[in-house]
Amino acid sequence: MTRLVLFDIDGTLISTGGAGVKAFARAFGTEFGVPDSTRRVKFAGRTDRSLVRELFALHDISPTPENFHRFFDTYVFWLDHLISHLNGTVLPGVHDLIAGLRRLEGPPLIGLLTGNIRLGAELKLRHYELWDHFETGAFGDDHEDRNQLAAIARDRGNELLGQSLEAEEVLVIGDTPLDIACARAIGAQALAVATGGATLQQLKEHSPTWAVADLRQVDAEQICAARTAEFAR
Fold this sequence. Notes:
This protein is α/β, with parallel strands linked by helices. The chain has two domains: about 5-15 and about 90-225, HAD superfamily/HAD-like (Rossmann fold); about 20-85. Helix content is about 45%, strand content about 10%. It has helices spanning about 20-30, 50-60, 65-85, 95-105, 120-125, 145-160, 175-185, 200-205, 220-225; strands spanning about 5, 15, 90, 110-115, 135-140, 170-175, 190-195, 210. Helix 7 links the parallel strand 6 (about 170-175) and strand 7 (about 190-195). The longest helix has 19 residues, at about 65-85.
């Protein structure tokens, strides 16, 4: 049985209309005087801190703790502003899947596994009235390496549940090949959804446990019943 379900945010739960990327660009422009800073960087599946470090390197900015603080203080200001002015949405099937997980007998713990810093994740999910659904998680300010975040999220789930979960009792849901790799880093099951950073065919090439076009195709009971469940391959 699946005991811990971990959701990615961007492209999996919500689309913000590009608020995160735009907030990155605004923060680099206002704090460091760098225009069009995000043009050469791929955001999908990355941690916020790794993206900032890459941008610092590209623009010869010293990666000091002070500069990270400067960036993120300004980033969350712009994110909060932009998310209210862009046409984002909760992605198809999200509400029904979460409700379905809650209705299960002995429901799994529901958490987040995201490269967003915690405050950024909260700003996004509170805007779409999703934040309170999640009981645990790991965030981009917990570790710069996304795969390490998977272990942190699992360990926090273990602590809340009062037991050590087997690898197959953990399910990671995400929209990029990096999310699949993140699941595999801890031996977890991976449900890939093609609502964000990759096509369904591209996701299938990375051999997730399941791959679907969107979360309307997902049955909560089936994905939590057994590791051998088959649907929407």
